[in-house]
Automatic annotation (TrEMBL):
Keyword field contains Hydrolase: yes
Organism of this sequence: Alloscardovia venturai
Lineage start: Bacteria, Bacillati, Actinomycetota, Actinomycetes, Bifidobacteriales
GO molecular function term, any single one: ATP binding
Keywords: ATP-binding, Hydrolase, Iron, Iron-sulfur, Metal-binding, Nucleotide-binding
Annotated binding of ATP, by residue: G150, K151, G152, G153, V154, G155, K156, S157
Protein name, UniProt field: Iron-sulfur cluster carrier protein
C-alpha cells in the first residue's frame, strides 16, 4: 500500500469512527431526552406523558457537531386537540430539554392529538386506575412521606420504621409500604411476620404495632411473590397501592429503594402528594449523593419535607463522638434549600440528628422499633422523643 492510499484509508477510518461516535451521541441524547420526558407530568392526569403514551417520537440530529449542538425533533400527542393545559405541558417539555446538561439542544416540537382508539384505551385505563389507587387524587387527607437515601446502609429503613411507630403511637392511623422491593426490610424491622389476607383479590395489609404494613417480603417464597415481583418498579408500586385495602390513613410512609432516580419518578407518578424525606449520614460521601436524591424534586412534582441525619454521633461517657464526621445533614438541607427554594417556596429543614445507638439495631432486629417500649408505648428515651418531635414538625408543616 502506498503512503497516499494509507493516508486516505486512515482518514476514512477516522471519519467513519467519528460518524459512529456522532451517531452514538445522537442515540444517547434521544434516549436521555425520552428519560427526561418520563418526568414531565400531565397536569390534569397527574401522570407522566410517557406513561400516558403521549410521546410518539424523539429524533436527534447534529445541528453543528463542532459546537456540540443538536436538533431534537419531538412528537407528542395530546389527549384532546387544543387542550387548555397544553401550554403547561409544552412549557414542561421545553424546560426538560433546555436544562439538558451535556449539549445545547434546539427543540422542534410537534404537537398532535390522539386517535380515537388510543384515547379510548387510555381513558379506560385511567378510570380503572383512579378507582383503584386511593392516594392518587389531589387533596386526599393522607400525608405521604417517601423516605429516600442516595445510597444504601445509611439507616433509611430504620428511620422509616421508627418514624412509622412514632406516628402510630401518637394516634395517627399509619400505613407503611416497603417499596424497597429488592432489599425489603420492613417486615423484620416491624416484626410483621404474618401474610396479608387475600379477600377476593383485595389484600389486607398486615397490622403490627398499630401500623398497617405491606411489603414484597411478606410474599417471599410463595407463588404470589413471583406475580408481585413484576419486572417494573412502577407496576409493583401501583400494585401495592391499588390491590391493597388501605382504608383512609392519616399518614403513609414509603420506604424507597436507595438511589437517585427511577424510584422517585415512580412514586411521584403514583402519588402526586408525596413529600420526600432524605436520610443521610454526616460524611460527605453520603451527603453528596443524598443531595442528588433530593434534587429529583426538580424533575418531578414532589415536595421535600426535610432531611434526617442518621448516625450523627455516639454518646460515650456523656461525650458526643462524631464517628462519621459532622455536618452532612446540614449540608444537604442547605444545598437542597438553595436549589429547590424557588420551586417549592420553602426552605428544606434538617428535621433531626439521630445518634448511633446499639439499641436501635438490636430492637430493630427483633421486630420492635426502638421508639417503642416492650408494651408498645412511646419509650422514655431521648431518641424516642426525637422521633416524636419529628412527627410534630412534619404534621405542623402543612398547617402553615
Ligand atoms: N442510628 C443507628 N444506630 C445504630 N445502628 C443503626 C442506626 N441506623 C441504622 N442502623 C443499622 O445500620 C444498618 C443499616 O440500616 P438500614 O437497613 O435501616 O439502612 P438502609 O439505608 O435502609 O439500608 P438499605 O437501603 O441497604 O436497606 C442496620 O443494621 C441498622 O440496624
Amino acid at each position: 500500500m502506498t503512503d497516499a492510499s494509507q493516508a486516505v484509508g486512515d482518514v476514512e477510518q477516522s471519519l467513519s469512527a467519528h460518524n459512529d461516535s456522532l451517531h452514538e451521541q445522537e442515540g444517547r441524547i434521544a434516549r436521555e431526552i425520552y428519560a427526561r420526558m418520563t418526568g414531565v407530568i400531565d397536569p390534569e392526569l397527574g401522570r407522566s406523558i410517557t406513561d400516558l403514551g403521549m410521546v410518539t417520537g424523539v429524533e436527534v440530529s447534529a445541528h453543528d457537531e463542532d459546537i456540540n449542538t443538536f436538533d431534537v425533533h419531538l412528537s407528542i400527542e395530546l389527549t384532546v386537540p387544543g387542550c387548555p393545559l397544553s401550554d403547561v405541558i409544552r412549557e414542561r417539555i421545553e424546560q426538560a430539554v433546555a436544562t439538558y446538561p451535556d449539549a445545547t439542544l434546539y427543540l422542534d416540537l410537534h404537537v398532535g392529538s390522539m386517535g380515537e382508539e388510543k384515547l379510548g384505551h387510555l381513558v379506560a385505563e385511567l378510570k380503572a386506575a383512579r378507582r383503584e389507587n386511593p392516594f392518587h387524587k389531589k387533596g386526599v387527607k393522607t400525608r405521604i412521606f417517601a423516605i429516600a437515601s442516595g445510597k444504601g446502609g445509611v439507616g433509611k429503613s430504620s428511620v422509616a420504621a421508627n418514624l412509622a411507630a412514632a406516628f402510630a403511637v401518637k394516634g395517627y392511623d399509619t400505613a407503611v409500604i416497603d417499596a424497597d422491593i429488592y432489599g425489603f426490610s420492613m417486615p423484620k424491622l416491624l416484626g410483621a411476620d404474618s401474610q396479608p389476607t387475600n379477600l377476593n383479590g383485595m389484600l389486607m395489609p398486615v397490622e403490627t404495632w398499630g401500623i398497617k404494613v405491606m411489603s414484597i417480603g411478606m410474599f417471599a417464597g410463595s407463588d404470589q411473590a413471583i406475580l408481585w415481583r413484576g419486572p417494573r418498579l412502577q407496576r409493583s408500586l401501583e400494585q401495592f397501592l391499588s390491590d391493597v385495602w388501605w382504608g383512609d390513613p392519616d399518614v403513609l410512609l414509603i420506604d424507597m429503594a436507595p438511589g437517585t432516580g427511577d424510584m422517585a419518578i415512580s412514586v411521584a407518578q403514583a402519588l402526586p402528594n408525596a413529600e420526600l424525606i432524605v436520610v443521610t449520614t454526616p460524611q460527605p460521601s453520603a451527603s453528596d449523593i443524598a443531595v442528588r436524591a433530593g434534587l429529583v424534586a426538580l424533575q418531578v412534582p414532589m415536595d421535600v419535607a426535610g432531611v434526617v441525619e442518621n448516625m450523627s454521633y455516639f454518646e460515650h461517657n456523656g461525650e458526643r463522638l462524631h464517628i462519621f464526621g459532622e455536618g452532612g445533614g446540614q449540608r444537604v438541607a442547605e444545598q437542597l434549600t438553595r436549589q429547590l427554594h424557588d420551586k417549592l417556596g420553602h426552605d428544606i429543614p434538617l428535621l433531626a440528628q439521630l445518634p448511633l445507638e446499639t439499641n436501635l439495631r438490636e430492637t430493630g432486629e427483633n421486630g420492635r422499633p426502638v421508639v417503642l417500649d416492650a408494651d408498645g408505648n412511646l419509650a422514655e428515651t431521648s431518641l424516642a422523643q426525637q422521633f416524636s418531635d419529628m412527627v410534630d414538625k412534619l404534621m405542623s408543616m402543612r398547617e402553615v
